[in-house]
Amino acid sequence: MTGRIRRSPFAERAARRQPGQAGRLRYVMGGISNHVMDGRRRDPRAERAYHTVPGGAGRRRIVWGSARAGAAVAVAAEVAPRMIRVENPAMLVLAAPDFEDMRLSRFDRQIIGAARLVADGGKGAVGILCPADLPEEQQAALAQAGADRLFFLPPGQDNPDRQARAVLHWFQQSGAAHILFPESPEGADRARRVTVAGGCSFMGAIQAFSLRAVIAPCHAMRRERVVQVLPQVMTLEEDRVAAYAGLAHEIMGMDYPADSERKGPEQTGRVRFGDAVAGDPASLPLGEAPFVVSAGNGVHDFTQFAAMVRVLGGTPGASRVVCDAGHMPRQTQVGASGTVLDAACYLAVGISGAPQHLQGIGRVENIIAVNTDLHAAMVARASLAIIADAQDVMPAVLRLAQQEGEQSCG
Amino acid sequence: MRVAVALSCGVDALSGRAAPVLSELHAIGLARQLSADLVGVHVGAAMPLLRDYAAYGLNRIDVLMDNAAEERGAGLVGAALAAWLRANTDIRILVTGHRACGGLDSGLVPFEVAHALDWAVVSDVAEVVGASDTEEKSSGALQVLQARPRGVRRPVFIEGACVLAAHDRTGNVPVRVHAIGRAAHIENVHLTTTSDEGQDNGVQGDIRPWRARPRLMSGTSDATKGSGNVLVAPSADEAARAIMNHLRQLGLGPSGAASRNVTQ
Ligand SMILES: Cc1cc2nc3c(=O)[nH]c(=O)nc-3n(C[C@H](O)[C@H](O)[C@H](O)COP(=O)(O)OP(=O)(O)OC[C@H]3O[C@@H](n4cnc5c(N)ncnc54)[C@H](O)[C@@H]3O)c2cc1C
Which residue range or ranges hold the Electron transfer flavoprotein alpha subunit C-terminal domain (chain A) (predicted)? Predict the structure, then answer.
């Protein structure tokens, strides 16, 4: 038997028969019942459209069958939950984001995305290890990022061994299958401490992540290692896995550390972190500097430029033309044959933005350009562009910055 | 005080030939800040490359010929180093590179050694600030600076014996003196590690040539277009104010957070 609907000409004819005037029979050949085999030809598109009803999660749904359940289903879709609940997970995957400045960064979201990937593959849940004093709105952000459970770590950020012990404690206690860390300075350190303390299987700096295999470079990035069975502890490089973008998950459980741990006797505090200190911008290596002020061929007065850099608290940089001319030392050259920056902000004074120069600032998010040429490539790349003569702007900035500096000191 | 430096004998990433690993040179630099009495240690076969390392200031290098380690690969390097350190009780500090460059390159070795010996471990060390006590026996506290991104340095206080892992990019490379390398004393040491010592971190997997893996588009790519706030021919003061406001939004500038705790 095929599932095809067969036409029954007699029945169709009978359905179309209507009592006409003066006792005659009449056949109405137009459609009585919509889309049920009326015309000679089927119109598959119209049939499909007719049977399509809005389903849950904003997706369309097609309901085949004689009666169109449209209205009822549509109502059901309205009340369908807008959050995903994972109530009885078959497994658990932990993620330990950095929470730098108590915020969930882009990298952190990617780590949770990777954990989500593994958990969804095994009908599991994602647990997040987070600091106890995480603000409320960040917990909402975690739900959006795909978290199902939260595990709070005891305070004590200044003792890495204790942190690692707490992470390992949750990892073992929760019976999670895997734990994922970012391969950031903090995450890499923590992951390795957890690995050796727990005797876990480990793979670091993963560049390709999927459920079938994880791949990380080895032999000085000349070879790569492909592992089919996911190790227990993994660290991922940035921008290798997409962050979770689906419906928010509902956080179904929060686990707090036991009181004994929370107060925590200061066991073996052999390593203690002090307060981080920002480097002196004037002497920082260019590749590490957070804020670089750079001079190009449009700058004529380099004494004034140096004064402005100092007052703004930036690290001096330069284009190649300026270095070639000997106005600035070679170490300050930004670009393909100079230094590639990791700065948060770049102030380019009189720089045209040649491709070789732009290569050096590919990762910089905020660029301010001062240039006389409205059509310079640097102006197109900038988030704030000032079309003016650098020789006029620099003294004005210097004056204003000095005023502000005095105000904030006094 | 005697300080040991772990040498991995890596390969150059471009040519694939044996070459010193940059972060291990940084490690020698760190060790020289700590003490003048240095000893290098390498697990595996003796190689001519060790003289290259020695030229940066090591008078002696111990080569640990551990058959077990060679057979079963990485994971046991840490155990071999730990066994050697147990045998040399006068050494209380081991300095290593960031990660090997030519092996599994997992970066686990310093942590394994520290775990096996129950020592402290600090990664990404950029600089030694001070060893308050040269006689080390009486729990001398050590202060080092840990490199964090964007030029931030974090002081770390360490008590007792420790493993320090150098940072891979920041650090100082000591002067290379060829004659020191020639004169260095390279000695084979046979160790007997019990075969169950040292955890093998399990995953082996297939090794194949490296291939560039795609990255997601990074967030900066939408900044590439520029959000297009263009001021055409403003007065100088207007321009300056616009720049300062922009910087303030980013937490930079003369009153910004980044420059606040900087000692000028
Ligand atoms: C193989 C190779 C490698 C290179 N590597 C690098 C590298 O690493 N780094 C690098 O920087 N370059 C590099 N270059 C050079 C690069 O191609 C450009 O020549 C260089 O970047 C241009 O520097 P500039 O923008 O300062 O000068 P110019 O191109 O001369 O631009 C000057 C800009 O200043 C503006 N201007 C002029 N007067 C004023 C004023 N009074 N006020 C304000 N603005 C003004 C102009 O409108 C112009 O946009 C490389 C080139 C090659 C071939």
Answer: 286-361
The region, left, alpha or beta by phi > 0 then psi within -120 to 50, assigned to residue A91 is beta
Query: Which 3 state secondary structure label does DSSP give A38?
Result: coil
| Closest to B70 (Cα-Cα) out of B244, B208, B190 | B190
Q: What is the ipTM of this complex?
A: 0.85
Give the distance from residue B241's alpha carbon to the nearest chain A alpha carbon, in angstroms: 7
State the DSSP string of A141-172: HHHHHT--EEEEEPS-TT-HHHHHHHHHHHHH
Domain positions in chain A:
92-263, 282-409
In whole angstroms, what separates CA A30 from the centre of its chain? Answer: 57
What six digits make up the tokens of B75? 């994971």
Domains in chain B, please, with CATH?
2-189 (3.40.50.620), 225-264 (no CATH)
Over residues B108-125, the pLDDT tens digits come to: 999 999 999 999 999 999
Token pair listed for A137: 């709105």
CA angle A241, A247, A249 (to 5 degrees): 90
pLDDT score recorded for residue A47:
77
Selected from 3.30.365.10, 3.30.1120.10, 3.40.50.720, 3.40.50.620, the CATH number assigned to the domain covering A92-263 reads: 3.40.50.620
CATH number, domain A282-409, options 3.40.250.10, 3.40.1060.10, 3.40.50.720, 3.40.50.1220: 3.40.50.1220
Q: Do domains A92-263 and A282-409 have the same CATH topology?
A: yes
Task: Report which ligand 1 atom has the smallest distance to the Cα of A378.
Answer: 49
Q: Is the pLDDT of residue A275 over 80?
A: yes
The Å distance, Cα B232 to ligand 1 centre, comes to 21
Chain A interface disruption, residue of B9, B250, B260, B263, most A CBs within 10 A:
B250
Q: pLDDT tens digits, residue range A83-136? A: 888 888 899 999 999 988 888 888 999 999 999 999 999 889 999 998 888 888
A157, A271, A312, A371: which to substitute to probe chain B, counting the most B Cβ within 10 Å? A271
Q: SS3 breakdown of chain B: % helix, strand, coil, rounded to 5? A: 25, 25, 45
Round to whole Å and give the CA distance between B211 and A224: 8
For residue A298, report the distance from its CA to the centre of ligand 1, in Å: 9
Instruction: Tell if the CB–CB gap between B234 and A291 is shorter than 8 Å.
Output: no
Candidates B153, B199, B223; nearest CB to A277: B153
Q: How far is the CA of B221 from the centre of ligand 1 (A)?
A: 22
Residue A251 distance to chain B (closest CA, Å) = 27
**What are the chain B neighbours of A358 within 8 Å (beta carbons)?**
none
In this prediction, residue B240 carries a pLDDT of 92
Q: What is the pLDDT of residues B174-197, one digit of tens each?
A: 999 999 999 999 998 887 665 554
In percent, the amount of chain A with pLDDT more than 90 equals: 43
Residue B200 in this model has a pLDDT that exceeds 90: no
Neighbours of B48 (CB within 10 A): 9
